[in-house]
């Protein structure tokens, strides 16, 4: 499995989750063995000029924190894009580290149907209106080179348009939306054949007092013999042992019993996040 994340340029630089994810990229138990980040860099964040949105020259500079290689490529050159993406995939497979592809491009129309970019970016959009679209630019090059004929190009375009039109026509006939079509890994037994959730009924989850006492005793003991334990911890363990004896629980012991009972059933429990190692909470 190889993960590929698609980002916008303003989001890549501006969303804290991107920076946080980079820092998770090489941690034990968290690494994906390298993610390929593709940044669709249209050099504008909704209507914000990059100079007003970030302090670094490139949106991809946040990837420097993990020394990820960053490839800046002209998105008007499809062959250069393909080459760079191949190098990125090879890097990831060889070194199992993150890699970033910065597709330097532009947005021909506004951010959405309501947005008129000429209001906020008149100079940029005067230039964009003069730009030959990438499809035409590349097609003209291939036709000039003799790689494809004009007829082959037109047939390919017509074929693609036909696929889109047919799908659009079919979509109008759809009266029922099947949930299961949108699930990449449907939980077996969770949905019925029509993709509707089955009625939710939980099996009984209670356990015997004997088992709770056992878990409480284990949770208040030290697993290694003759192990010198911190006096503060000794007090906590002693108090926990007393609670178990007196059939009382606090929040921490209740959590121990919940985790312990799940472990007794042979189900793996993984705890992550702040203060987990110390068991502070």
UniProtKB/TrEMBL annotation:
<dbReference type="Pfam" id="PF00676">
    <property type="entry name" value="E1_dh"/>
</dbReference>
<dbReference type="GO" id="GO:0030976">
    <property type="term" value="F:thiamine pyrophosphate binding"/>
</dbReference>
<keyword id="KW-0786">Thiamine pyrophosphate</keyword>
<dbReference type="GO" id="GO:0004591">
    <property type="term" value="F:oxoglutarate dehydrogenase (succinyl-transferring) activity"/>
</dbReference>
<dbReference type="InterPro" id="IPR001017">
    <property type="entry name" value="DH_E1"/>
</dbReference>
<dbReference type="GO" id="GO:0045252">
    <property type="term" value="C:oxoglutarate dehydrogenase complex"/>
</dbReference>
<dbReference type="InterPro" id="IPR029061">
    <property type="entry name" value="THDP-binding"/>
</dbReference>
<keyword id="KW-0809">Transit peptide</keyword>
<keyword id="KW-0560">Oxidoreductase</keyword>
<dbReference type="InterPro" id="IPR011603">
    <property type="entry name" value="2oxoglutarate_DH_E1"/>
</dbReference>
<dbReference type="GO" id="GO:0005739">
    <property type="term" value="C:mitochondrion"/>
</dbReference>
<protein>
    <submittedName>
        <fullName>OGDHL protein</fullName>
    </submittedName>
</protein>
<feature type="domain" description="Dehydrogenase E1 component">
    <location>
        <begin position="2"/>
        <end position="179"/>
    </location>
</feature>
<dbReference type="GO" id="GO:0006099">
    <property type="term" value="P:tricarboxylic acid cycle"/>
</dbReference>
<comment type="similarity">
    <text>Belongs to the alpha-ketoglutarate dehydrogenase family.</text>
</comment>
């Amino acid at each position: 499995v190889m993960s590929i994340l698609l980002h916008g340029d303003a989001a890549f630089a501006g969303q804290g989750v991107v920076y946080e994810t980079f820092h998770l990229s090489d941690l034990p138990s968290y690494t994906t063995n390298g993610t390929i980040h593709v940044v669709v860099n249209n050099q504008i964040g909704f209507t914000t000029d990059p100079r007003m949105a970030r302090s670094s020259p490139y949106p991809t500079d946040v990837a420097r924190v993990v020394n990820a290689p960053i490839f800046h490529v002209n998105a008007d050159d499809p062959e250069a894009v393909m080459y760079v993406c191949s190098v990125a995939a090879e890097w990831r497979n060889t070194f199992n580290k993150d890699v970033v592809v910065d597709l330097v491009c532009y947005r021909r129309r506004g951010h959405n149907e309501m947005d008129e970019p000429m209001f906020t970016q008149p100079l940029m959009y005067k230039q964009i209106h003069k730009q030959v679209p990438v499809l035409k630019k590349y097609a003209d090059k291939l036709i000039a080179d003799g790689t494809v004929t004009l007829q082959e190009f037109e047939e390919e375009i017509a074929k693609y348009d036909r696929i889109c039109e047919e799908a659009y026509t079919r979509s109008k006939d759809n009266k029922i939306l099947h949930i299961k079509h949108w699930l990449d890994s449907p939980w077996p037994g969770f949905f019925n054949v029509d993709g509707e959730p089955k009625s939710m009924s939980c099996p009984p989850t209670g356990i015997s007092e004997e088992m709770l006492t056992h878990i409480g005793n284990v949770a208040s003991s030290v697993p290694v013999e003759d192990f010198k334990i911190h006096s503060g911890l000794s007090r906590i363990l002693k108090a926990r042992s007393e609670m178990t004896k007196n059939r009382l629980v606090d929040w921490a012991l209740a959590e121990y019993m919940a985790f312990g009972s799940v472990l007794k059933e042979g189900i793996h429990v993984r705890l992550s996040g702040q203060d987990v190692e110390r068991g502070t909470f």
